[in-house]
Specification:
It is built from 4 helices and 7 strands; from the N terminus they run βααβββαβαββ. The chain is about 30% helix and about 40% strand. It has a domain of about 100 residues: Aminopeptidase (3-Layer(aba) Sandwich). The protein has a 7-stranded mixed β-sheet with strand order 1-2-3-4-5-7-6, with helices on both faces. Helix 3 links the parallel strand 4 and strand 5. The protein is of the alpha+beta class. The structure holds coenzyme A. The site of coenzyme A has 18 residues, from strand 4, helix 3 and helix 4.
């Protein structure tokens, strides 16, 4: 059974591995570990026993939250893991008094764009050439809620 929990030190190495699998510009293990002591950060993991199925990371400043990343291991995709992580993160951010969640997504990332659309994120802008490796525009998406 997959469970969602706050990230702790025991998850850092597997998150760094999954970052390398999923992204051309991955976060290092040290950067991920430093999020554990950042009071602005909220990171959650989806685990099956000891195994990491996915994770999500965010930072909140003055009631506005940014999603840094979300990824699901290829073995666990299309089982609702990312959806569960985002909904759990929104609940955690509401409890912190945050009123919206923003994120950037590659224009070509059809699975992620479908995920965010399903969960009610709306496009609020674009950043030209935001990404490198390969260079590509970012769409800026936002999900708002009542608190
Ligand atoms: C994008 C990603 C996080 C989705 O994770 P996931 O756990 O497979 O997604 P879920 O099973 O929760 O899917 C929820 C909804 O998202 C959409 N979706 C997810 N993957 C999709 C795909 N490959 N194609 C089309 N729609 C997809 C669907 O609407 C899906 O609902 P449905 O299964 O009822 O049709 C995963 O593919 C991933 O880790 N990709 C690499 C990292 C990445 O791109 N992260 C996003 C950075 S902005």
């Amino acid at each position: 059974m997959i469970e969602i929990r706050p990230m702790d030190q025991t998850h850092v190495a597997q998150i760094a591995e999954l970052e390398k699998t999923c992204f051309s510009d991955p976060w290092s293990e040290a950067s991920i570990a430093s999020e554990l002591s950042n009071p602005l950060s909220c990171w959650l993991v989806a685990v099956e026993g000891e195994r990491l199925a996915g994770y999500i990371g965010s930072q909140t400043v003055m009631g506005e939250s940014d999603m840094m990343n979300v990824a699901v291991h290829p073995d666990f995709r299309r089982q609702g893991v990312a959806q569960a992580l985002i909904l759990a993160l929104v609940d955690a951010l509401k409890a912190r008094g945050s009123h919206w969640l923003m994120l950037e997504v590659r224009h070509s990332n059809a699975p992620a764009r479908a995920l965010y659309e399903k969960l009610g994120f709306a496009e609020v802008g674009r950043r030209k050439n935001y990404y490198s490796k390969p260079r590509e525009d970012a769409l800026i998406l936002r999900k708002e809620w009542e608190i």
